Amino acid sequence: MENGRPDGLRERKKRATHRALQGSAVALFRRHGPEAVTVESICADAGVSPRTFFNYFAGKDEAAFMLEEGTPALIEERITARPPEETPLEAVRAVFVARLSELATGRIWLERVLLVRERPELLPRIVLTNRAVEDAVTRAVAARTGLPEGHLYVRTTSAAVFAALQAAISCWQPDSGPEVATLVHEAVEMLGRGLPAPPRTG
Length: 202
Fold this sequence. Notes:
Helix content: 55-70%
Shape: globular
Number of strands: 0
Order of helices and strands: HHHHHHHHHH
Largest sheet: none
Structural class: mainly alpha
């Protein structure tokens, strides 16, 4: 406790500031384009000082694209903790469906998805973010199977699941059609069935 206030309150305020800066960065990137946005404009929108900004992020790209703190570790922990009778695909699917259900209720994640759709040239800027999530899946699958992280099965499983996740998000229409979590469930289930071809039409 500090100054009579519980540490939990301080942590909640830090998380709120972190979210506010992320939300402002993504919204301004969409509104004006990333090149026109500065750290100062993000801070003005979020109502904090540049000094505070650099306590959280190294630059504007990090503010716009970095995942919530601890996300890869959380994903790894949740996959590893799934019931042991589940296959690796079932465990990963359950965790991503739950996680996407959580994220889809927040404005920042939706704004980020729309930003990358509107400006596909920004995709290279999220490579490190995507790699962190895929690496978390790799570690979790290795832990569940007892295989080394470099094993072909482990690498193939994590790469395939991550590709299915990205495909589901790219097919998702926020204003119509199935929820993103439903599409993730279906995409990973297709992998488990060996990607059978759908019936031909026409």
